[in-house]
Amino acid sequence: MAYTVPKLKDFSPAALDNAARELLSALEREAAQTGSADQRKSFRDHWLGRKDGILAQMNQLWLKAAPKEAKREVGQRVNQLKAEVEQKVEAALTKAANVTTTPSLDISLPGIRRQLGAEHPIIRTMHEIVGVFKNLGYSVAEGPVVETDYYNFEALNFPPNHPARDTQDTLFLANQEAKPRREQLLLRTHTSPVQIRTMEKLKPPIRIVIPGKVHRNDPPDASHSPMFHQVEGLAVDTNITFGDLKGTLDHAMKALFGASVRTGFRPSFFPFTEPSAEMFVSCFICGGSGKRGPDPCRPCKQTGWIEILGCGMVDPNVFEFVKQNGYDPEKVSGFAFGMGVDRIAMLKYGLDDLQLFFQGDVRFLQQFA
Ligand SMILES: [Zn+2]
Predict the structure, then answer these.
(1) Which of 33, 171, 296, 330 has its CB surrounded by the most CB atoms within 10 Å?
(2) Cα of 179 to ligand 1 centre, how many Å?
(3) 306 CA to middle of ligand 1, Å?
């Protein structure tokens, strides 16, 4: 309820003091509730309005109504009070106007700091591997994750119905039965299709390194995931030999795992290389001894060696698919290699569960930031 000036019966100084106190505290209350421009206007009208504002009421109800003998005293007090009211109303209006036009900004409050992101340990490992080959003059090539059967298998010397296809449990896209086999879409099972795509675009010589995400129908467990990462490399030129492959990869492994690691090769089979090999590095955890103090070294299964990648000389059958772009198997030769980034990251960071990388638990990932 807005304040109104009461009629006085008693015009003694004490009664006037009392009435003045009530009036001023009403003024303070109403001033505190004044904010918007509309509120400021009605506040001013209520107190200073000429016709029936509080000041006019004071004239009417206190000064004019005062008995003759008290007039002088009441007049002085009312005039004093009017001056005070005018001054307080103006001050309150100025304050309210400033508060509403200035946005409230408390610069003493600490701000909300956004946490900085960091490279995921898998991506960091991938960049490290790619960096080693970039320093050797390799350029980076990338390709689609959804591939055709042709690039993922056929052009890499996996003929239709070849048993080697069974080793890569493939995720095909649905409802493609009407398409010819080589056009059917799948999630690439390796980064190798980018070898073909690059050789179709660039004439030899080439040296490329291919990082990327691949998929296979493997149920997730401590060492498998339906999605994982590879880095693959390809060098094609005239007179590339198995010696070049060994020298390049030996250098790369020393750059990645330290100058003291030794490397070894064991014959293997891949459809797109001939001859093919698996490459081993001496265990960089136990130094090749197979033991960690009195305990067996688990990462190398006590052998002192860790299988790290697959490699080989590019099969001439693969060159046949890109022969028209200058890759005549009679004239050029090359080597290729591929490694699983996730496993290397596990070894590097001493993890025994691959799933930790993909669960998105910030508490785990923060350790690598
Ligand atoms: Zn070991």
Answers:
(1) 171
(2) 49
(3) 8
